[in-house]
Amino acid sequence: MTSLNVLTYRTGPRDVLPVVLLHAFPLDSRMWDDVAPLVPGARTVLAVDLPGLGGSAGLGTSSPALEDAADAVAETLAAVGVERAVVVGLSMGGYVALALLDRHRGLVAGLGLLDTRSTPDDDAARANRLRIAAELESSGTVDAVRPMATALLGETSRTLRPELADRVGALIGQQAPAGVAWSQRAMAARPDRTPVLRRFAGPSLVLVGDEDVAAPVAAAEHMAAALRAPHLVVVPHAGHLTAIEDPDAVAEAIGDLAGRADIDERRARG
Ligand code: MLT
Question: End-to-end alpha-carbon separation of the chain, Å?
Answer without folding.
Answer: 35
